[in-house]
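Quick one, tokens below. Sequence please?
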């Protein structure tokens, strides 16, 4: 299995290089009439452009913006349509909505109305997957938007084949099951940026339901689990959620950094509306540092993340709201959401080398763990993965990355839109 994964990784990397190398070749000095670039070259160059002439808006038909996204690690590619109408009537009133349906029947819908954070005419940046750190993922994505924002937000997700291996660092791959997650999040959000510091406060209602999964290759979670091994399986409560956080942005280019640092902190409170079985607090810290080695072509990138969730006395954290390791977010050498727990610690490091201005290679090392109590908040018994990757990017943003990571459970390919961190 590992050999086949490694061979596939090499094949994909070679294919990428075969397409990209010609796209970035330049005519000789004595060539008087260079030929018009072909369709592939034009498509690649457009994809890796910051689209300054279009104000960063990209392809759109009036207020409608078609895109291809990955709404969750198990979803596959999803056609997504955004509706974006900023500054309606010349006033500071924005409306953004989007809808996606993936090849594996994952559905995602959202709506934001009010003073929605955005840069120029560009689409708002919204976090939609289950792997991101809520609410830090949203705070980071909107950190570059100027000024003050206040808006109402609604999100609905139907993710029909989410994986569950058990809780804790000793869960087994053989115990893999699946479940269907349906949830809605309805919030009021206030966000403000002053200089390089962004603040966000939000409050709302979270409604979730757990149903049998649709992946025929694995048993349903209810066959081998109960409330003891998967809290929240039999009763999915409604939550009143209150969160606040801040993001300090000191990087030269936040979505393609070469130097500087960033720091995010957040606190969330979740209250079970109908009982006290699932009530908890969560603290998040995400620190990132970027050190150029002589020039911006050689960069050491470092990241430290912790998520500390503490349930109230007599309460537990629902399994689908626990922190996770594995997949595109953290510990990429392991399967998506391979490990779950109330608390998480992650350390990541990459050496990045710009082979060409829009092609970057990376060496990657990651370590992390999940643990139930603060006694486990140390560097003992860390899970590890390591590997290499190739990234395609514009001057300001990493557009696409392909990483090949190896862990104690094998070799894994991770193809993702956007940067790793």
């Amino acid at each position: 299995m590992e050999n086949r994964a490694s061979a596939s990784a090499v094949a994909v990397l070679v294919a990428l290089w075969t397409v990209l190398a010609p796209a970035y070749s330049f005519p000789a000095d004595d060539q008087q009439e260079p030929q018009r670039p072909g369709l592939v070259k034009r498509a690649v160059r457009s994809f890796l452009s910051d689209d300054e002439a279009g104000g960063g808006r990209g392809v759109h038909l009036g207020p409608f913006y078609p895109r291809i996204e990955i709404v969750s690690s198990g979803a596959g590619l999803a056609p997504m349509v955004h509706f974006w109408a900023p500054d309606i009537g010349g006033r500071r009133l924005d409306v953004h909505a989007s809808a996606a349906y993936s090849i594996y029947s994952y559905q995602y819908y959202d709506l934001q109305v009010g003073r929605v954070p955005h840069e120029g005419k560009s689409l708002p940046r919204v976090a939609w997957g289950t792997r991101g750190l809520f609410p830090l993922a949203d705070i980071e994505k909107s950190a570059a938007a100027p000024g003050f924002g206040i808006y109402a937000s609604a999100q609905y997700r139907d993710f029909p084949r989410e994986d569950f291996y058990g809780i804790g660092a000793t869960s087994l791959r053989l115990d893999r099951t699946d479940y269907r997650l349906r949830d809605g999040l309805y919030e009021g959000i206030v966000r403000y940026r002053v200089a390089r510091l962004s603040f966000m406060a939000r409050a709302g209602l979270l409604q979730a339901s757990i149903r049998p999964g649709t992946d025929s290759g694995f048993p349903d979670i209810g066959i081998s689990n109960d409330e003891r091994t998967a809290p929240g399986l039999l009763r999915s409560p409604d939550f009143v959620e209150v969160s606040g956080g801040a993001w300090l942005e000191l990087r030269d280019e936040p979505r393609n950094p070469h130097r500087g640092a960033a720091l995010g902190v957040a606190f969330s409170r979740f209250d079970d509306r109908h009982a006290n079985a699932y009530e908890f607090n969560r603290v998040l810290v995400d620190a990132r540092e970027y050190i150029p080695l002589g020039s911006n072509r050689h960069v050491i990138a470092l990241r430290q993340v912790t998520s500390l969730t503490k349930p109230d006395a007599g309460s537990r954290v629902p399994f689908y709201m626990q922190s996770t390791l594995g997949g595109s977010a953290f510990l990429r050498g392991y399967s998506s959401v391979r490990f779950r727990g109330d608390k998480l610690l992650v350390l990541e490091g990459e050496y990045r080398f710009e082979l060409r201005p829009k092609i970057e290679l990376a060496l990657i090392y990651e370590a992390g763990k999940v643990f139930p109590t603060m006694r486990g908040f140390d560097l003992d018994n860390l899970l590890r993965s390591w590997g290499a990757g190739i990234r395609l990017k514009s001057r300001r943003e990493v557009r696409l990355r392909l990483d090949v990571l190896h862990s104690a459970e094998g070799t894994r390919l991770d193809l993702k839109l956007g940067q790793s961190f």
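Helices lie at 2-23, 39-47, 136-141, 221-224. The CA atoms of residues 144 and 309 lie 28 Å apart.
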